[in-house]
Specification:
By secondary structure, the protein is an alpha/beta fold. It has ten helices and six strands; from the N terminus they run βαβαβαβαβαβααααα. The protein has a six-stranded parallel β-sheet with strand order 2-1-3-4-5-6, sandwiched between helices. The longest helix is centred in the middle third of the chain and has 17 residues. It starts with a strand and ends in a 6-residue tail after the last helix.
Length: 217
């Protein structure tokens, strides 16, 4: 598949360089662009093939939301990963509606940042534990009442176990360590789960797990 190409957008140079330095030694990731200019970002996205755009948010503005929407419309293959100081419900929902496929809180550590990038590159959404809990708390009653056509009998025992652990907010690395598997194997199982159940996002997986009593809320 080749290297995962990244762009980092933030108004502060130290923050841009800090995020980039966390990823410099990851062998299959490449920082193609660091910028604080909206115009330069949009121009370079026309030239560079960027897989994941990391946007660090200090203050959520209309201009920043518009930028995310513009990127989403003009470059639908670019996955937007937001790191935000604020993770209240209103901010999270606005950012998701603007087109972000990943959201990390300010408490995020390097390993989770790397996991989020891999997950987005594989075509799936990624939300940090605190964000997932927030979204679940808001929609849990609706999720439980949704009708679902996916059949739990399609899953193997191992797949159900992985779904249960993931739904309990364990990261891929934590699941791998607990089950004595590689992270790649866990990712493969999760992809198979989504394919078997015809699910498109991580939120859909949570819905399925709740409806089928695989996880408790």
């Amino acid at each position: 598949m080749g290297n995962i190409t990244l762009a980092v957008y933030d108004e502060h140079r130290l923050v841009r360089e800090g995020i980039s330095s966390l990823l410099n030694n990851v062998k299959d990731m490449e920082i193609m662009l660091q910028t604080d200019s909206k115009n330069k970002l949009l121009d370079q996205l026309m030239i560079l093939k960027i897989n994941v755009l990391i946007i660090n948010v200090h203050i959520l503005s209309i201009q920043l939301l518009n930028l995310m929407m513009q990127v989403g419309i003009s470059h639908p293959k670019v996955m937007i990963l937001v790191i935000s100081v604020h993770s209240d419900e209103e901010t999270v929902l606005k950012i998701i509606k603007a087109g972000a496929k990943g959201f990390l809180s300010k408490e995020t550590e390097r390993n989770e940042l790397i996991e989020a990038i891999y997950t987005l590159r594989n075509g799936h959404d990624y939300f940090s534990k605190s964000i997932t809990s927030l979204l679940l708390n808001k929609y849990v009653n609706k999720l439980k009442s949704d009708d679902g056509s996916a059949d739990i009998s399609n899953l193997s025992v191992r797949e159900i176990e992985i779904l249960r652990l993931w739904g309990s907010s364990l990261t891929n690395k934590e699941i791998a360590d607990k089950l004595f598997l590689s992270v790649r194997t866990v990712e493969t199982h999760k992809n198979h789960i989504m394919q078997k159940l015809n699910l498109k996002t991580s939120v859909d997986m949570i819905k399925f797990a709740i409806r089928n009593n695989i996880i408790d809320i």
